[in-house]
Amino acid sequence: MESLSTAPRDERFPHTNQTRNCWVRYVEWKLCEEKHGEEESECKKFGRWARALCPVDWIERWDEQRANGTFPGPSGESS
Amino acid sequence: MKSVNTIVIFLITFGYEVIYNDAPVLWQTGFQDPATPVMEGIINLHHDFIFFFILIFVFVLWILLRAIYFFNSRVNKVAINYSHGTLIELIWTIIPIMILMTIAVPSFALLYSIDEIINPAVTVKAVGHQWYWSYEYSDYIGENGEIINFDSYIIPEEDLEIGQFRLLEVDNRIIVPVNTHVRVIVTSADVIHSWAVPSLGVKCDGIPGRLNQISLFIKREGVYYGQCSELCGVNHGFIPIVVEAVPLDNYIDWIQKKLYA
User: Fold this and answer.
1) pTM of the model
2) Where is the Cytochrome oxidase subunit II copper A binding domain (chain B) (predicted)?
């Protein structure tokens, strides 16, 4: 098991509503992977934070959408 | 039952053991015992408000009874013929303003301190379903990418063991460490639910498509009971919440077992 840590408090999302925090972490994670590869430690860190914040179902749905090319957010090809 | 209560009170009085009340009891009118600074704040604020409440209640009752007793057609044959007094209007406008301002200050201080999120060490996700809660501990990932993810269903009445609470026990409790900042992300997979535990001073709506964040800092070990607090369908009353707070080492052991067992 890795050390006891989780996604840190993010100054961009100071409110109760953390929906955007999860979304931004997920997009950052995937963009990082596209740019630097899945084994990059920074990308792994973003992945950990995104998984900490987003429900499993959401991540699965977005992964599926990315595979189908229907993901509504930014991806490596479009940016 | 009465003799048991007497013994318990005797023991507490002489410092033998303190038994905390983290679940509702019959005919309860007060709060459950607080386990977080937030709940301590809520209880203290309530008590402060009750001070003003009693003051106002006694004063208004006194005025009312005095008016009823002294002003009636028997005693006052001629009715007074004025209906306005500037001084009294000023007094009964300004004094309530002062009282409201006095109680607003600690109220806002508490409100904003509840919203304060300190950098957490643990994130737990609580997802409401019709009709159960499911929990995710995604901070920890097993060797094959597995995460800790389980459902928490009510224990039906016929399966209860002696000492268990009716309508409050679940098959899988969530375990969190004491004296640690825990972030709870509440959401829902279908309709609006609400994740609430009175002893911890938390109540947070789980809304589909939205993630709500609350912060827990539990100060003592214990088992804390709560229930869904937003009408969510026919079994709304049958999706309890049980939080077990354990020392950090035990929490890590539990995580290890969940991941690698």
Assistant:
1) 0.84
2) 119-257
